[in-house]
Task: structure prediction
Amino acid sequence: MPLPPKLVRRLVIAPLVVILAVAVVMIMPIGVAAAAFASRFVPGRWRPLRLLWFFFVYLMLEVIVLAALLGLWIGTGFGWRIRAERSQAWHYALTAWFLRRIMGSARRTFHLSLDTVGKPLDLRDRPHLLFARHAGPGDSLILVDLAMNTAHRRPRIVLKDILQFEPAFDVLLNRVPNRFVPHGPEARQATIDAIAVLAGTAGPLDALVLFPEGANFTPKRRERAIAKLDERGRADLADRARDLQHLLPPRAAGALAAIDAAPTADIVFVGHAGLEELSTIGDVWRGLPMDFDVRVRSWVVRAEDVPPAGQREAWLFDQWATIDAWLIEQMADTNATT
Result:
């Protein structure tokens, strides 16, 4: 589905969300009663009611954020000073608040707990590149929330343009340094270029967030990724990818472009365990309430410890092997306690 022009998104889609929110508030008592009744016939503990409540909370937060964004637009001279440093700080603060509320609601509604394991990150005042595992629903929100509200970094993200159908994301993320790129295979170079620009212009409090796997892990995607490495004549990397039990092999082009563009940036590798069984919408539905303990582990590689350019692709696979080994340990511990 083609993305509507910016003016249509601002004057049509965003107001429709506000109208929807008003309608939902008016029919919420009926919706709660219907969801509670339906929950009697659905396996699990109050699944329809939990989903309805989370949708309601998200929609209310969406309207609050859109109202705040309108106020910021007016307060910056109808957008004239929207790129000023103070305006940027306000927008990042609003993003952090939005994420805290979403994640807080998700934890309470779905019985989802989040634990960071290992030593606290020792982050210096310099740009950072966050290279993370991609698996399960909402892991991108979890990572960005940790980056903003725990590590106190300003995230920079390359996103698919289709996400601009979501009005709060559309307005908010277009006002701070992020890039939306077309989806599909033809967007590969545009994505790499966007990554390089965001990494190369990052300041000491900024962090480029990247998922080098490019998609959530599934066995079929893993086999396709290995086959592509074989087709490229990289049998060495294909063999290493076969050793990865819970990860897709990293697509090195974007990560290497970020490292080249930001040679003084420290690199944070992030693994998480607990969401891998929720790959599809059906998995999420059957898993509600989740009652999951999501564990997050990070490793920092200082800029001066990053190897020379010719060795970085193999080195990136080394880091992925480290994350995979940690995941194997976590899943063994989980199986031992169940």
In short: Residues 6-39 form the longest helix (34 residues).
